[in-house]
């Protein structure tokens, strides 16, 4: 994005230090930060905020606070985009479906709604945050080599997600670790046979250019806050973008 928009300042945020260390454009910076903490930026800092694939990490109450915080750092007239994926996939083989059932059971036990992205979930969150002109889009993406570059990347991401979730799923379901690992291996072949896919949900909302007297902005409640050192806003008047959960 930084290369595509050289006149913009792009900030990438993730809880884990998964940022590139080489070939970083001069107009790009990265910040390790927990999205459940207040963002270390002043009000009205960014023209565009993009957040994606946090469905497995946020509880319903967290979502409300997070979207309100995204709205806070957005400039009047700027846009927030949220992108999430379904919690089960489509055209699944038996082992692939079993994996998603284990995932859903585990996350529900942790108070997480795996269907937060389905309509009108994201739009409702934006409305609660005071955003307007909300637009939604639903689209399917292939999971597997049969889907070309996109399908290959999504398959790799899905496999990596299941592997990363191993200790959490084992603890949450009590299944045998070997059974879980064998299911992951079997699924790698199943997605090609059944031509599996995922449904993605995208929602965009715009910040009001002036406060609405009928809709006062709610104060985000993050509970006990950790001390955060503010990062000064860029001095340049050029557009600024922020992306949360870089992959």
TrEMBL record:
Q: What InterPro entries does the record point to?
A: Methyltransf_25 (IPR041698), SAM-dependent_MTases_sf (IPR029063)
Q: Ranges for the Methyltransferase domain? A: 2-78
Q: Which organism is it from?
A: Linnemannia hyalina
A single GO molecular-function term is: methyltransferase activity
**Protein name per the record:** Methyltransferase domain-containing protein
Annotated segments matching region Disordered: 212-247
């Amino acid at each position: 994005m930084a290369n595509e928009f050289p006149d913009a300042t792009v900030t990438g945020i993730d809880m884990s230090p998964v940022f590139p260390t080489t070939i970083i454009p001069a107009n790009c910076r990265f910040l390790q930060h927990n999205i459940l903490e207040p963002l270390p930026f002043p009000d009205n800092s960014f023209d565009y905020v993009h957040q994606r694939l946090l469905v497995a990490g946020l509880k319903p109450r967290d979502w409300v606070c997070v979207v309100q915080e995204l709205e806070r750092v957005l400039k009047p007239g700027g846009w927030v985009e949220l992108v999430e994926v379904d919690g089960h996939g489509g055209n699944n083989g038996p082992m692939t479906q079993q994996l998603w059932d284990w995932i859903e059971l585990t996350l529900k036990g942790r108070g997480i709604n795996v269907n937060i992205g389905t309509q009108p979930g994201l739009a409702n969150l934006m409305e609660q945050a005071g955003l307007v002109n909300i637009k939604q889009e639903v689209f399917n993406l292939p999971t597997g080599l049969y889907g070309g570059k996109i399908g290959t990347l999504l398959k790799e991401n899905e496999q990596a997600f299941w592997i990363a979730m191993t200790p959490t799923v084992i603890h949450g379901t009590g299944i045998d670790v070997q059974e879980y690992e064998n299911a992951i291996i079997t699924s790698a072949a199943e997605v090609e046979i059944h031509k599996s896919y995922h449904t993605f949900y995208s929602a965009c909302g715009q910040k009001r250019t002036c406060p609405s007297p009928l809709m006062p902005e709610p104060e985000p409640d993050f509970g006990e806050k950790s001390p955060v050192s503010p990062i000064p806003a860029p001095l340049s008047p050029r557009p600024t973008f922020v992306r949360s959960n870089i992959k």
